[in-house]
Write a structure and sequence with these properties.
Length: 213
């Protein structure tokens, strides 16, 4: 990964925060799997690193790693603190009728392959705020208070505003963009006082302009 050094947002006291590019997952199946960010960070650091949380392959933005295994539990706990803030930016289909909305739809398996809103699913809490609008799209700020798999994408799809480029939770599949227009913009950890921000990814800035947002 040629620009990895430029993507490191913070490196101190065992904490390694990276602006993850899209088209690569946070971790792979093995430590030798070069199709993941963890592999390239290990190579860059010349020592082991561990992921504190996961981002989907096609989600860009703030991704937290640590260089000491004992720190994984510490930072997971900090991220689970109810006062922590995990903010994403998403470009979605359709102009919402609301300016702000809280969603509590439970997330679980709807068939053998897919997740979705299900009454027997796990509790999930998201808050969405419209930042900009155009006739057929919107730029949304998403805050999540739980960490369910694909939570933002599922909740937005359930509300009738699937993420542009989403090939799982948009029917029909959206081919308007090369990847899902979802970016982890900011993470705030209250107990440590750390705030990490990754600028909106360049491809999403371009998409935003194309959609007049």
């Amino acid at each position: 990964m040629k620009d990895l050094e430029q993507r490191i947002l913070y490196k101190k006291n065992g904490l390694l925060v990276v602006d993850k590019p899209y088209n690569i997952p946070s971790t792979g199946h093995t430590l030798d799997d070069d199709d993941c960010l963890q592999f390239w960070l290990i190579k860059h650091q010349k020592s082991m690193v561990w992921a504190v949380h996961q981002l989907d392959a096609d989600t860009s933005g703030v991704n937290i790693f640590v260089t000491e295994k004992a720190l994984v539990a510490k930072y997971k706990k900090l991220m689970e603190n109810p006062n922590s803030q995990k903010e994403y930016l998403a470009i979605v289909h359709n102009n919402p009728s609301w300016n702000q909305h809280e969603e509590f739809g439970r997330i679980g398996k709807v068939d053998n392959r897919s997740l979705g809103i299900h009454p027997d699913g796990k509790s999930a809490h998201s808050e969405f705020t419209v930042l900009k609008r155009s006739k057929h799209h919107a730029l949304i700020q998403a805050r999540i208070f739980t960490g369910r798999t694909h939570q933002i994408r599922i909740h937005l799809s359930h509300l009738g505003h699937p993420v542009v480029g989403d090939d799982w939770y948009c029917n029909p599949i959206c081919t308007q963009h090369i990847r899902q227009a979802l970016h982890c913009h900011r993470i705030y950890l209250p107990e440590s006082g750390d705030t990490f921000i990754a600028p909106f990814a360049p491809d999403l800035v371009t998409l935003q302009k194309e959609l007049a947002l």
